[in-house]
């Protein structure tokens, strides 16, 4: 159950946002064992005064079009799946909506399965396990 939060500079149209959602969701389905309909995603747009990314950190040349993708997910996947996810996100977002690979910053935050509630105040994964 990944929770995806995307941050970018203000000014992109709705179609651009939708392409970001579709690309990240498709990459998770293809590489990260995310079931169909497991889709919880937000986009937050920022003015230049509230969005700052290093233009050169780690030798990567980023532009003002950088997109920060934070994925919170259960800690149930190995390194190979994570690497495949990152690469597939970049491939899909480069194809549509045309984000440069250098401008895709991904942060994966892993949590224990019992740290999720999908509604009704129930920790559904904890109930399934315990």
Automatic annotation (TrEMBL):
List where the protein spans the membrane: none
Which branch of life, at top level?
Answer: Bacteria
Which Pfam family is one of those matched by this entry? Tautomerase_2
The record ties this protein, via InterPro entries, to: Tauto_MSAD, Tautomerase/MIF_sf
Output this protein's name. Answer: Tautomerase family protein
From the broadest rank down, the organism's phylogenetic lineage runs:
Bacteria, Bacillati, Actinomycetota, Actinomycetes, Streptosporangiales
